[in-house]
Structures are given as C-alpha cells and as structure tokens.
Amino acid sequence: MEPVIKINRGASKWDIRQRVWDYIEEKNLANFPRPVHNRIPNFKGANQACNRLADLQEFKSSHTVKVNPDRPQQQARFATLEAQKTLLVPTPRLRTGLFNKITPPQGATKEQLRICSSSQGVRDFSVPVGLDAKVKVDLVVVGSVAVSEKGFRIGKGEGYADMEYGMMASMEAVNESTVVVTIVHDCQVVNIPEELIESHDLTVDYILTPTRVIKTDCQLPKPQGIVWTKLDMEKLEKIPILKTLHALEEQAGKDVTLGVALAAAEPALHTAQPKRQTRRRPKRNTQQDAEGESKQSAPRGEGQQKGRLRPARVRKESRGDDKGGDEREIGEKRKVKSGRNMREKGPEEKSGEVTSQRKIPASVTTVYLGGIPTGVRVSELKTALREREAPPLRLTWQGAQHRAFLDYNDPEAAEKALEALQGLSLNGQSLQAELAKSQRGGKRSGESNRRPRPSPALKPKTSTSTDDAAETTEQ
C-alpha cells in the first residue's frame, strides 16, 4: 500500500515527525490530547488497532509483555491483562526505575482490568521492577510517530523507547527472539530512509493499524545495550537507573565513555527534541495522569469500584500552552529544573515568567523573532534553532504574543544567528528575525506606537494570564 504521507528526499527524522503530526491535525485523525505535536498521537481507531494484538501468534505464546504507557496503547494493556499475562509498563521518564509490574486484584472483573490498564491503574496497581530482577520479556509494544513497512521506527524524539530496550538488553531481559510491535494509524506508516536509522534505534517486527497487520521482516539488528557515547552526564543525572547501569557496566570493565555535553553539540539520541520548559502555576486540586492527559471526570464504572479499587483521581483539562502532555509523566509535579539553576523571583512570580540567576554578559545582543504562528511550542522553536546552529544563550518565549527574544553572547554571534535564521518557517509560516530595539535603535517589528513595550534588556512583563506568560530559559 502506498503511504498517504509523502516524505521528501533528504528529510530528517524531525522533518518526518512534523509532517506526520501536521497531517494528523489537518485531517482531524486524533482524539484528546490535542494537538498531537511532540506526542505519541492518540489516533482515532487506536482500540481497533490494539485488538489485533491478541490475534498474533507471538502474543498468544508470550508470558511477559511490556507495553508503553501512552493513551493509544491502553487497549493493548487491557488485552494483556485479560489474557492473564504479566504486564510491564515503563516508569515515568525512567526517573524511579525501569518497569512497573501491574498487579490487578485477585479475581478482577473485566471492568476492573480496564481500570488497571488505564493511566490511574498503572499508577495505583503496580510494583517496581529493578535492574537486578530476573525478567524475560517475550513481547514489547511501543508507540511511534512514524514507522516504515521495513520496520524502521521514529518516536517523538526523546529516545525513551530506545533507552528502555537498551537497558532491557543489558539486563538480558530481551534477546534476538524478542518480538517488537508498534501500534499506529495507517497514515503513520511512511517511507523512512534507512540511512536515518542508527545502531541505537529500535526497529519493529510487526505494525498494527486499524486496517492492517504488517510483518516487517526487518533485517536491521536491534540495540544490544545502551550506546553510552550518545548520552552525557546531564542525562545520567536526570535518570538515576541509567546512572546505576552505567556504574555497573563500568565495574564489569565495559567501555562506558560518555559523549560530549549535547547543549553545545548537534542534537543526538534522546535530545532530538529540546528539553521541556517549566513554569510555576497556581496550585489546583488536580492530578496529572500517567499519560500526560487531563480528565474532567472519571471514566464510567470507576466510581462504582470504591469498595475494591481506589477510584481514579480527577484533574481539570490543562491549558493548551501546557507542555506537560508527556505521556510518561505519571502524577509527577512539575518543578523548575535545578540543573539549570533557575528560580522565580520578585514581581515575575505573579506573571509566571521564569528567570535565571546566572549573570548575562554586558555584551549580550538580543534578536527579535516575530510571526510565530498559534499552536507552536517553545520546544519546536528550540529544535529549529538547534538545527540551524543558532542556539541562543537565553530564550524569552512569548508565544501568546507570537514572538520570542533570543540573547546571544555578542554582536558577532547575533549577526551569525540572524543570517542562519533567514527564511525560517514554522508550521508553514515564515518568521521574522531582526535585531531587537535596544540593539538597533529602532522600534521592534510588530509593535505599534500606541502600545510601547520595554526593551528585552528590561525583561518584558507579562500579564497574569497563563497563556500570556513568558518563559526565559538558558541554553
């Protein structure tokens, strides 16, 4: 079958992701959460595709199945529990371990199993499984943004599926006979050039869609462990279990040389998408679920299980500018990253602007970037800046005003960035890059005479609305 999404020659992984995300949004092929950008899409027909898992002989003969925690694979988790198989789900962003083993109540009904396979069930009815556990995984189910009929897979760019498989290989939980399945919408099956697939990339054996079961017969080997040169110390500090594995392999005499700090290098494994930014929000009596989704009410039937199951907690729908839609952040509170030495201070605490304690050089030169289209996230802009080799010293994001301010070390660095940013477009809309007012002695582009605004050096104030809040981050 010819793919419905055409991939241009020379496209990068990020180009392919954007093409798939854009197509799904344009054709309205996804359910909540939306937009699907920077997510494993919760595509329409996901349950139908997941139900094909039970027909695979490799699933029927399996004992232990590992399924990713994303919303579109919830039905696959249910099918695994219903078939009375051991279900393993990765922990949120690998921060507290490798797996959670789902343990339904004794004699659980079908409705109870559905609760256990939901985001809240993954949280409430699981026990951790560590690196030292003697586990053999027979079948692995992963989400994808794009996949080819040859078995080449592209995730959302953070590399967790690759890391999880690499760690499983290191602990001998998987081997050459382990079957890997991905579940996607038909439009997500595209032509992916083989040269984009590297040794750390996880390939798949089966693709399940709402209409097809595709056996890939992929000839590329799967990862045999963690490729340490693709990681840096910052990644190890953020993922304790990865740091533990690094120490164990070092003790075993293996080569565990890390790569250079990726902040100053071209994005590589697990950093294709820039780090998510955080902002302080007013406290609410709400709860983030395992899949980064928001619920206005508990699913029907959950409240009826109070005597035997803890009911799913409820939280209000997040605002559209919340970048916390990461499906792997199970009930985690958002924090300002201490590794970036960031804090909120003074009047900005009320406005939601996050500033840095680090002193900015006196020679800093600011570039104004205007015309940012609605719906674009700061992560998308940061990726575009990295791809054009124009990462700033600091970025002030004002997406609601369709603009951003980029601080560079000196005028020379700013001029190089300006040259690199010419012709930059996001979501098909061209952006305007020019020196900010304080550096060129004129008026900022897009500002009217009626509403003068302060220069970037004075840190633009923002309203108390979350949508209008500015984010100032260091690169």
Account of the protein in words:
22% of the residues lie in helices and 15% in strands. By secondary structure, the chain is α+β, with helices and mostly antiparallel strands. The protein folds into 2 domains: 1-335, Rossmann fold (3-Layer(aba) Sandwich); 338-474, RRM (RNA recognition motif) domain (Alpha-Beta Plaits). The strands form 5 sheets. It has an 8-stranded mixed beta sheet. Strand 9 and strand 10 form a beta hairpin.
For the largest sheet, list the strands in their spatial order. 4-3-2-1-5-8-9-10
The CATH superfamily label of the largest domain reads: NagB/RpiA/CoA transferase-like
N/C terminus separation? 43 Å
Judged by helices, strands and strand pairing, the structural class is alpha+beta
The CATH topology label of the largest domain is Rossmann fold
Keywords:
475 residues, alpha+beta, Rossmann fold, Alpha-Beta Plaits, eight-stranded mixed sheet, five-stranded antiparallel sheet, 13 helices, 19 strands, 22% helix, globular
SSE blueprint and pairings:
Elements: H1 13-26, H2 46-51, H3 57-60, E1 64-67, H4 74-82, E2 86-90, E3 99-102, H5 110-117, H6 119-124, E4 126-129, E5 139-142, E6 146-147, E7 153-154, H7 160-170, E8 179-183, E9 206-208, E10 213-215, H8 233-238, H9 240-251, E11 342-343, H10 348-351, E12 355-356, E13 365-370, H11 378-387, E14 394-398, E15 403-408, H12 411-421, E16 425-426, E17 429-430, E18 432-435, H13 437-440, E19 471-474
Parallel strand pairs: 1-2, 1-5, 5-8, 8-9
Antiparallel strand pairs: 2-3, 3-4, 6-7, 9-10, 11-12, 13-15, 13-18, 14-15, 14-19, 16-17
Helix pairs in contact: 4-5
